[in-house]
Amino acid sequence: QVQLVEAGGGLVQIGGSLRLSCAASGLIFGSSLMRWFRQAPGKEREFVAQISPQGRITTYAGSVKGRFTISRDNTRNTVYLQMNSLKPEDTAVYYCGANRTYWGQGTQVTVSS
Fold it and tell me: Mind spelling out the 3-state secondary structure of 75-111?
C-alpha cells in the first residue's frame, strides 16, 4: 500500500529554518504529483506547495512564496520542503500528499519566540 512518512518537524525560533522530508513507498514516485499542506489549530488544511513529477514545475501559496522551497529526489522517492524565515503563523502540522489521493501522518512545526 502507499505510505508517506514525513520527518523533520520541530520547534524553531522566529526567523529560523527547518527542512521537512517525506519518504514515499508503494507508488510510482517519478510519476506522482507531490504536495505539502498544513493545518493550524482550529483552521482548515491549506495548500503550501506542489511539485510536478519530474520537478520542473513548482507552485506555492502566496503566504510562503520566497521563503519555502519544495524539491524532490526521485532516486530516493523523497520530497522536501525547505522552510526559511519562519514566522509564528507557520506553526502547523505539515502533511505530505501524493496525487491528490494519499496523505502522510503529518509532522508538527512550531515557530516560537
Answer: CCCEEEEEECCCCHHHCEEEEEEECCCEECCCEEEEE
Residue type, 27: L
- Which amino acid, 6? E
Q: Is the pLDDT of residue 70 over 90?
A: yes
106: which 3 cell numbers? Answer: 503529518
Mean pLDDT, range 6-32, rounded to an integer = 97
Residues 103, 97: contact at Cβ < 8 Å?
Answer: yes
Euclidean distance between CA atoms 76 and 23, whole angstroms: 8
Judge contact between 101 and 32, C-beta under 8 A.
no
Amino acid making up residue 106: G
Q: How far apart are CA 19 and CA 53, in angstroms?
A: 20
C-alpha cell at 54: 519530474
Region 33-49: mean pLDDT is: 97
- Pairing type for strands 10-13 and 107-112 reads parallel
Query: How far apart (Å, rounded) are the C-alpha atoms in residues 35 and 99?
Result: 8
